[in-house]
Amino acid sequence: MKNLILLTLLFACLTAFSQNNEKTDWNADIEYIKVELPKCHYNLYMLKSEQDFYNGLDDISKIQDQLSDFEVAVKLQQLIATFGDSHTNLSLNPFLDYNKILPIGLMWFSDGLWVQSTTKSNETILGAKLIEINGYVISEIIDSLSTISAIDNQASVKTSTPKIIPVIQFLEYFGFVAQPEIKLTLEKDGETLEYLIHPEQMNRNNVMRVLPNPTPLCYQNTRLPFWSKVLTKENVFYIQYNKCWSREYPPSGYKGDIQKLPSFSDFHKAIVDSIQQNDYDKVVFDFRFNGGGNSYQGTKLIEELSTIDKLKSKGNLYVITGRDSYSSAIINIMDFKNKTNAILVGEETSGKPNHLGEIRSFKLPSSALILQYSTKYFKQTDKDLKTITPDKEIEPSFTDFKNGYDPIFEWILKQ
């Protein structure tokens, strides 16, 4: 659960902020992008043309002297986003100012955006629904912020925008904010609330959160890459797969002791043995928090599960999907969809079945910003699908969350 909450504080914890006092030579960086990105990328021009790319960079170059470093970087990222690859991004972190972050952690539910965390000094708005910022309705703000990244579907919007709405620099960039004091319009306990809020750093000493009570099964071990539990009373075998990495397939660039990572080979064997040795009413694989990694280990497990007779009957195997299901997790969800009779339950995924990936990166010569790009195309279906739509769509509400109720898992139990 702690890991999930920290996602909402992503930008509030950018204590590594370090603006470079030297003027950035954006012309050098733009020329570098013009040459290197098309050369390194798997196929940058799947959606738009080379001329579109060159014209866009030239347009930014013409006005870059009128803009701050942050504004130039955002315009470059917006241009890259229009080429449709959500894995190809320019890191903006070096130009983000952690002193210009609103102390609110937002979560998106079926009934809107809610303040899930804030500081003690702003306790009044904890658990309130965000309606407007400075008189601008939240849907208008979301539409603007959605241009910063390549958006594959509505699930992508639900995943990305709550994390960047608190960043005042983005609100300033789009003209929603012109001064440090910001007026929020919220709804709480059936009443409308107008609230003035100022930038403030949120930390473990001053943060307040709305936490689910009781803590449902899905939130109990989100920090673990993978884990399982047998629910004896319900005769259900629950497997949560949060990260597509392990000792055998460590995260890209991992610098820790690989031997201390959990073994997926051991996990694979334990899962198969448990299913073969027990007559479970249901086996549930939960992918709702899985943002990817390496799909190979999951694919091998799913291939073996597909050969087990007791899982072949419709209604014995369920896969939970969510808005955070992305990248390699998408490949594994499609493995279940294509190779088994699994019933998919939950929310649409932010990742597309057919997508670019296998990321590499390079550093721009003047700004030193990191630009990551895709080197491979993964095709899972002949259809041009923007998301994986589950067989049964269920999106939790804020009331579900705070009351510790998981409507997705509860629906599965009732089948």
Comma- or semicolon-separated keywords:
single chain, alpha/beta, Transcription Regulator spoIIAA, Pdz3 Domain, 2-enoyl-CoA Hydratase, Chain A, domain 1, 6-stranded mixed β-sheet, 4-stranded antiparallel β-sheet, 29% helix, globular
Written description of the protein model:
The chain has 415 residues and is an alpha/beta fold. The chain has 3 domains: 18-95 and 356-377, Transcription Regulator spoIIAA, CATH 3.30.750; 101-209, PDZ domain (Pdz3 Domain), CATH 2.30.42; 217-352 and 387-414, 2-enoyl-CoA Hydratase, Chain A, domain 1 (Alpha-Beta Complex), CATH 3.90.226. The chain is built from 12 helices and 16 strands. It is globular, with a radius of gyration of 22 Å. Helix 2 (26-40) runs antiparallel to helix 3 (50-63), helix 8 runs parallel beside helix 9 (296-305) and helix 9 runs parallel beside helix 10 (328-339). The protein has a 6-stranded mixed sheet, sandwiched between helices. Strands 5-4-6-7 form a 4-stranded antiparallel sheet. The chain has a 3-stranded antiparallel sheet with strand order 1-15-14, with helices on one face. The relative contact order is 0.14. Helix content is 29%, strand content 21%. The chain has helices at 2-7, 26-40, 50-63, 69-81, 138-145, 154-164, 168-173, 264-277, 296-305, 328-339, 398-402, 407-414, and strands spanning 89-90, 104-109, 112-119, 129-133, 136-137, 182-188, 191-197, 207-209, 226-231, 236-241, 282-286, 317-321, 343-346, 355-363, 370-378, 392-393.
